[in-house]
Amino acid sequence: MAHNTGHKPVMLAETIAALNVRSGGLYVDGTLGRAGHTREILALGGKVLGIDRDDQALEEVAKVAGDEPELFRDLTVAKGRHSELKRLANEKGWSKVDGILLDLGVSSPQLDEAGRGFSFLRDGPLDMRMDRSGGVSAADIVNEEDAGSLAKIFRELGEEPQAGRIAKAIVSARAKKRFETTLELANFIEKLIGRRGGHHPATRVFQALRMAVNDEMGELERVLEDGISLLNCGGRFAVITFESLTDRVVKKFFAAHVGKMVSLQQGGEKWEGAIPRAVAVTRKAVKATEEEVNLNPRSRSAKLRVIEVKET
Fold first, then answer.
1. What DSSP assignment string belongs to 182-243?
2. Which residues is 55 bridged to in the sheet?
3. pLDDT score of 187
4. What does DSSP assign to residue 277?
5. Residue 186 and residue 117 in contact, taking contact as beta carbons nearer than 8 Å
6. Domain enclosing residue 175, as ranges
7. What is the pTM of this model?
8. Beta strands 269-272; 260-263: pairing state
9. Taking a C-beta distance cutoff of 8 angstroms, is the pair 50, 79 a contact?
10. Which of residues 164, 190, 213 is at a domain's end?
11. What percentage of the chain exceeds 90 in pLDDT?
12. Residue 98 and residue 163 in one domain
């Protein structure tokens, strides 16, 4: 799931620096992808539990690890959702860890392969499942949900202003013929609402479908709660987001744990916030440099936020 170009994830140097990796430390990469971040953590002497639900990503990591067994000897790979990271870490015998990394979103290999159905730039089946071994596909949602449910998905997960209009038109059109491919849906939306500005008019709908298919918001809420409870005192939690929707969830969750000092009527002050208490490592979201954006346009929307747990 990590957003990679080739094997270089977004904001690699900034993320690794913010994690403050130490030799012998225990780290969870909840979105292993092609192991770009993990490679750097291992090179610094960290031990890593890498989690991904995409079989293709896991196969590629196995190949890379086979080529460099010495570097990858302290990597344990687990197939699963990142929301399961606490259970997977506990099964490995790790009751606490020193750092957690999540690089949310879709990987370049997922986007670039038409057969995965993530992109409206290439014709492929309307799939979008990160784990193709089960669950509903984007085609199932588009062809079976009623107009109200579709509009809710497009509005809440895609922040699509014309959610209702698009949903009604889809329901009307699919009565004659099911939507089967990415381009069928993308072209239908473009014809319906027209093209203005730089973004393809189907961008928000495709984002919403991908997030619905993979339960990305539910996953994020669960992994934040589980993750922060797994961190040692001094442990760091780094999250890279690519949509304003997911960034807002991370920002709010981290802010609650950083808390604030509140003045008391009788004098003095006390800290108010969610437990465990944390401090902000990044005061505001870190963004990719202009140089990186030029090399990898997908990094333009990336935001990195990091906190450190102060007490457990």
1. HHHHHHHHHHHH---SSS-TTHHHHHHHHHHHTTHHHHHHHHHHHHHHHEEEEEEEEEEESS
2. none
3. 95
4. P
5. no
6. 134-213
7. 0.90
8. antiparallel
9. no
10. 213
11. 80
12. no
